[in-house]
Amino acid sequence: MNLWPKRFPLFPETASRLAQDVDQLYFFALLVTAVFSLLIAALIFYFIIRFRRRSEDEVGQPERAGLWLEITWSVIPLVILLFMFGWGSKVFFDIRKPPRGAIEYYVTGKQWMWKFQHPEGPREINELHVPLGQDIKLIMTSEDVIHSFYVPALRAKMDVLPGRYTTFWFNAEKAGAYRLFCAEYCGAEHSYMRGSIIVMEPDDYEEWLATRGQTTAAAKTGADLFSAQTCDTCHRSDSAAQAPILHGLFGKEEQLADGSLVLVDENYLRESILNPAAKVVAGYNALMPTYQGRLSEEDLVGLILYIKSLGGPDSADASASNQATTQASSDREE
Amino acid sequence: MGDQMTTPAERKRLNYLNADYGVKSWLLATDHKRIALLYLLSITVFFFLGGLMAVGIRLELATPAGDLVQPDTYNRLFTMHGILMIFFFLIPSIPAVFGNFLIPLMIGAKDLAFPKINLASWYVYSIGGLFTLWSLIQGGVDTGWTFYTPFSTTYSNTYVIATALGIFIVGFSSIMTGLNFIVTIHRMRAPGLTWFRLPLFIWAHYATSLIQILGTPVLAITILLVGAERLFHIGIFDPAYGGDPVLFQHLFWFYSHPAVYIMILPSMGVISEIIAAFARKRIFGYKVVAFASVTIAVLGFLVWGHHMFVSSQSPFTGVVFSFLSMLVAIPSAVKVFNWTATLFEGSVSLDTPMLYALGFIGLFTIGGLTGIMLANLGIDIHVHDTYFVVAHFHYVMVGGAIMGYLGGLHYWWPKITGRLYPVFWSKLAALVVFVGFNLTFFPQFLLGYLGMPRRYYSYPEDFQVLNVMSSAGATVLGVGYLIPMIYLVWSMRYGKRAGANPWGAVGLEWETPSPPPTFNFDETPTVDHEAYEYTSPTETRVA
Ligand SMILES: [Cu+2]
Ligand SMILES: [Cu+2]
To answer: Does domain B3-511 correspond to CATH entry 3.40.190.10?
Structure first.
């Protein structure tokens, strides 16, 4: 075994513009750190030499009034901090808020692997191929414990939790393979829960998709499951419907029995499949059985994709409703 | 220095150490000074046990492959390292040893308000410790000291409940100590010793005690819920039973972030004492430093959400917690500036305690400033849960809290034992600790920004050079911790006699003999001056 690596970088590679934003903020924070640390160190060294004890019974000079000093060294750091706080919050929102119309991929974490579902159908494990220069949005959940989806080259991470969806988005500027780590401790093989994000030129990506052979689009898989589970007995568009009509539902605000409003997003659909009695739409009875334990995470993703494929309240602006969903879902997840 | 001050009469007088002999006189001691020594002994055992775990961790991480131990073993090592160091060493360390020993001495009291509760707290601590050690011998825990759900409630197959019970129990000793300190500081100050004449060590302990009694119950409840969820699947934290895993994080950090201040505030108190004594000058901005302690304690309860910026908490909540967390930097920075300003026009002597105090200022400054980066949303999203965080909290807890602890140990050792330790070896050890510490933890900042996640047992090869540096530094640091062990034990028998006030410091604890008599003062002192009043050379101030 080679005991000494050939390469030992001191700084990570960069794959997106937002990653550069994080770096700039970090460099500024480093500068502040360096200036303050060196200032303190220099003052201490100067004082301990200049004011060293010269005789055994010498004592220090009495303190001079220093209120203006106290104010100065409280206010100056406060101003710098407020500036960094504002800047940091801006960078954070840029990284957290997916843009409209991003391509959506589904991610499932489990002890100890990453599973990916492409919208076009292909599935992958521990590797995700994506096209360059596109907004990519990942909708993520976990089958067991909490994991965290972390790509250092993108300078971003997001926890992946059981029982809900969280999102992560990026737009890679450079083709290449980038490290994916699980950053939240998740048990024995936590440090082996690694993978890669493979960013490809759009043409290469199309070619790669083609080599995956005949795969069924994920929404179609969901549609098949929808009939296999006989969901269509109740969720139908004619007068015999005993459950909300699913066409044009996604992204809509539904009124519940208690009068409150709920936004139909991925997390709401997920909850309504697994625990239908939780938020029943006004005008319907809680007839639906629970599907908890009867569907895998992949099945759920298929069903949600199918429902999304049935369009939103304003299908012309489907991406806008998507946008609202993401924001609302992150606001709600407290 | 001190030898010529000791008169033969003083040498023969009764003190708290020779007043009584035998195991029983120690195990049933109600003297705060004896109880402090019981704590000193116990926490030293846990410190070296926790250190041993760190040795295992750093050995494994010397190579990228997972080769020395099994992953399960590694996970238990870092979990037990965290649990032992935090709950059984750092949290009790300065309060239970120096707080216990010195608060009555500094305020001119005979003992703490409740001597029996004080002794009981040590027994409670020991029982909690034995529980934890038992679970360790059985095979340990692998949840990390943070016990995140649903891993801890549903997926871990280790001794979660036994360990959690150990932590639950030890929490009560912390509450008892805090309660005792608060009552003592309120009720038992010597005549004339007003609040603004108190040493800053007392202010720091007062603030710490507030956190201990307000925060610890929340931890106890959280731990009970984890146990109940594990045993009965009550559905609080695990979504499979209808719970919310993030709720655990809120509850856990509501205690565990303030716990950071339980660890660092007493250390800051020690640093104030040392700087004043070795600059022979009143701490610059005394009132500001005193209120900074209280401000840190209060703000500390409002920042727990900074551990959850990427835990699916809403981005707006993140902004609020980011803002509040950054505010904590202000009172902390103000303290650093005030300590530095105290040196100005002082009479500075670089004795061993002062070396630790200056080391503390440097390392705590770096720890604090990197904490600002972590409180910053835009940087945290990258470095959260990486070695950057590991480096940061070791700068605060080891570079800060333990440097303060060692500084305090060297400052009050002559008072506690009546003996001086060798100057050369103690200064050497301080230097070795400082160098070893930086070599261990500085490379971890770089590793963290490179993206190495924490709690990794195996890592990509290009992280190796920095990891080897860190492991090498840990060896140096380990040596630095062993040297004081040797010369301090040696000094108890062979060290020169210290005399009442070997440093020429001001403070009631230096006005009674070393070691102090059982009831501290022959007659209750009266105070007619401010703290740290260095006006004329070593003037006796007992009225
Ligand atoms: Cu993991
Ligand atoms: Cu914290």
So the answer is: no
